Amino acid sequence: MSKKLLCIMCCLFITLSTFSQNKEESLSTPELFDFVLLKCDLSSPVKDKDAIDGAFKKGLNGIFINDKELANYAANKGMVAVSKYTMSKCQSILDNIKEPTKTTLVFARERSDGYLRNALLDHCFVELFNDTIFGEERWLKKLINSSLDIRTRLINNNTRMVVDITNKSSIPFHIQITQCDQLKPEQKEVTLSPMGQTSLFFNSDYIKSPQYTLHANIKNAFNTEKKVLKHVFRLHGMDYMVGTESQNTYNIIPAPRFLEKGQGKFVFNKETRIILKDKNAEAPLRFLTDRLTRTAQLPVKVQNSTQKHSGNYVIFDRANDSALGNEGYKINISPEYIQVLANKEAGFFYAIQSLLQLLPAEIYSNTTVYKDSWSIPAANITDTPQFEHRGLHLDVGRHLYPVSFIKKYIDLMSMQKMNRFHWHLTEDQGWRIEIKKHPKLTEIGSMRKETIINRYSATTPGIYDGTPYGGFYTQEEIKEIVAYAKERYITIIPEVDLPGHMLAALATYPELGCTGGPYEVGTRWGIYDDVLCAGNENIYPFIEDVLQEVFKLFPGEYVHIGGDECPKTRWKSCPKCQSKIKELKLKDEHELQSYVIRRVEKFLNKNGKKLIGWDEILEGGIAPNAALMSWRGIAGGITAAKSGHPVIMTPNTYVYLDHYQASMETSPLANGRICSLEWTYGYNPIPKELTKEEAGHIIGVQANVWTEYMKTPEQVEYMAYPRANAVAEIGWSSPEHKNWEDYLDRLQYQFKRWQFYGLNCATHYKNK
What sections of the sequence does the record tag as coiled-coil (predicted)? Predict the structure, then answer.
């Protein structure tokens, strides 16, 4: 790091007396809510405690440290250790700053776990002298939201709104108001001074809505592309009195591609008729009529007719619009009638999901609700999905869940327009699918003698419950679930993980392993060295036997074969594997794994199926026709897309729902790092590194739920929701139709729906 950078960071607190520190006391880190303001010495990593003491005496509160012991020493003084990884990110933005000597470093970070992560999540820079903010757009918006306290009040008989904005930061924000729903702003431009309060005034004939949306340009804030930052503020209007119904609420998730609000509302009553003009709507229609009949006590009449109609009716008709594709739809709602248009069954089904979300939240109740009015606000909607694959995964290898819960899981997916259920059926810790040709797989492989109950490490031994655990799904149960999913336009992608994560199978058939065993079904989490023996020809008849029965159970075109986390330890010392490497003239064990995957793919293709694997199938060369799930970040997806393979983005940093979603100190035991709802929602599955043509190979996005620490269905629900809901919007709604603030508002109504439906969701983002 250059001396220039050292100079940059050392000038901050000399210039700004606001943040001066008492050098005799432990330094506290000045915070902007979810951000941390650092005065840093980043010239080079410190080598000893003396260097830390010297930086401390200079009044610095951030320092470049690579050593864990030194980092702890600095932390005890109230200093922040900036990692080498974070430093590499700093340099790329520093290069774009015109006046680096006038720059203050501001890091965005996850504050909910009570301490800075080992790698700060992201960052932006603030030039206090010319009021310019640099950094990623999502963090700039978060910085603004975290810095401003907005309060509203109504005056002049509810015809004038006063918006008091307190800027708690040392950064001025110059905003230009571009739109504010039905309100007329008295000021078009205003500066929100640092550490001060500014009042805005808006007029209307009568302010009656519970909320208004203010659109503004932040004139002095630019993202890394140097574009003016467009920002949305939420203003509270008049709250409705208890017992009344709010009008024209449009809380659809995922956000439609086009939604035009209308005047008035359509009311379902005992006179409402449903006109069926397209047979494609017949099957999806019951998902509307069943809820109206059972929940709302409105048994609406359905009739087939091509005549013109009048009065209170809902008509389902063919769209004949190629732009809608197979899953798109149009809805036109007026006080007199509702028109629903689509090309295919799936389009009508997704239209009905939007109609249900426009009805009062009570429509999702599992019991009869005695409510006077069931109405839908007037609107015109045109909607199509961004991606063909909109997936949610569930691991039943670590913990097993009843058929009733699997159906509920699928129901929740369908409500939010997800269409791929990735069912992870085999694991080291349990074989969960009945294979009739090999019944011992479930007799032996589905049972483990006990389960670990703590997080073990090299220094912390595992603690076990001493209780046998097991179970599996019969083929009849699987057929029932597959049919249930099909009715909801969800395709199930089964996963039989190989050649790694096969310990349950090896415990059943030890001759398929490199050492011959004995093996036992896994009792701890993590990766095991014992995998299928790639040099043993007997593994292939076994794999084919299993897959043949999988093919008959799951009619979808894809089968997931895993391919992840397969250690090469046993292969390196196995005579059969080494002989196979020599026989095939392979370079190494990675190419041996590629050989296994390619051979399995040929069998799949021969039987009319396609292969999906985790991104490790790239190692040693990807199978010719394989699709790839990129889970270890996005690099694997980029590589596969550039080579023309279909890619589903599922990076663990954004969409692994087994990761913590809030404070590690107060949350139930979970995997990995904190992956907050906002962090997940901000993910864009299309990497910037791809051209438009290459991006066409990104066919979808998926969230994964690994269940090491989820013993019950309620725990799965808590970890999956609301984050799975955010992923649903990522998969359906294009980036230009996504907005965090707007999503958070719509989510509040979604919480009400889930309450009536009986979902045990996390409520960290629910307004109290």
Answer: none
* Matching residue, tokens 């009638």: 337
pTM over 0.85: no
Would you say how long the chain is, in residues?
768
Report d(CA 659, CA 676) in Å as an integer: 9
- CA–CA separation, 603 vs 626, rounded Å? 12
9: left (phi over 0), alpha (psi -120 to 50) or beta: alpha
Nearest alpha-carbon partner for 756 in 465, 445, 390, 364: 364
- The 8-class DSSP code of residue 120 comes to -
DSSP character for 606? H
Q: Residue 391 pairs with which residues in a beta bridge?
A: 420, 702
Cα–Cα distance between 157 and 646 in angstroms, integer? 59
- Provide, for the chain, the percentages of residues in helix, strand and coil under a 3-state DSSP scheme, each rounded to the nearest 5: 30, 25, 40
- Per-residue DSSP letters for 513-580? BSS--------SSS--S--B-TT-TTHHHHHHHHHHHHHHH--SSEEEEE--S---HHHHH-HHHHHH
HSE at residue 362, side-chain half, CA atoms within 13 A, is 18
CA 454, 456, 461, 466 torsion: positive or negative? positive
Paired sense of beta strands 447-448 and 430-431, if any: unpaired
Considering only CA atoms, which of 379, 329, 332, 364 is closest in space to residue 350?
329
Mean pLDDT by 10 residues, the chain (768 residues): 37 33 37 60 82 84 81 79 67 59 56 38 54 70 81 88 85 87 91 88 86 85 72 76 51 96 91 94 97 93 77 93 97 96 98 97 91 90 98 98 98 98 98 98 98 86 96 98 98 98 98 97 96 98 98 98 97 98 96 97 97 95 94 95 97 94 83 87 94 97 98 97 98 92 92 95 86
3-state SS record for 704-766: ECCCCCCCCHHHHHHHHCCHHHHHHHHHHCCHHHCCHHHHHHHHHHHHHHHHHHCCCCCCCCC
Of 692, 699, 696, 690, nearest in space to 649 by CA: 699
CA of 204: how far to CAs of 115, 164, 235, 248, in Å? 46, 18, 14, 18
Q: Which residues pair with 256 in a beta bridge?
A: none
Tokens of 567: 């250690």
Asked if residue 125 lies in contact with residue 133, where contact means CB atoms within 8 angstroms, the answer is: yes
Distance of CA 345 to the CA centre of its chain: 27
The residues, any chain, with a CB within 8 Å of residue 469's CB and separated by 6 or more, are 430, 447, 448, 450, 451
629 and 590 Cβ atoms separated by less than 8 Å: no
Q: Please tell me the predicted confidence (pLDDT) of residue 126.
A: 59
Tell me the C-alpha distance between 637 and 58, whole Å: 46
Beta partners for 392?
A: 421, 703
CA 522/CA 391 separation, integer angstroms: 28
Distance CA 704, CA 648 (A): 12
Q: Is the dihedral of CA 391, 397, 400, 404 positive or negative?
A: positive
Question: What pLDDT does 137 receive?
Answer: 75
Sorted by sequence, the CB contacts under 8 Å of residue 535 that are 6+ apart come out as: 514, 571, 574, 575, 576, 577, 578, 579, 580, 581, 592
Bridge partner residues of 313 (DSSP): 273, 337
What span, in angstroms and rounded, lies between the C-alpha atoms of 333 and 613? 44
Give per-residue burial for 565-597: e unless 16+ CB within 10 Å, then b.
bbebebbeebeebeebbeeeebeebbbbbbbbb
Burial class (CB in 10 A: 0-12, 13-18, 19+), 58: middle
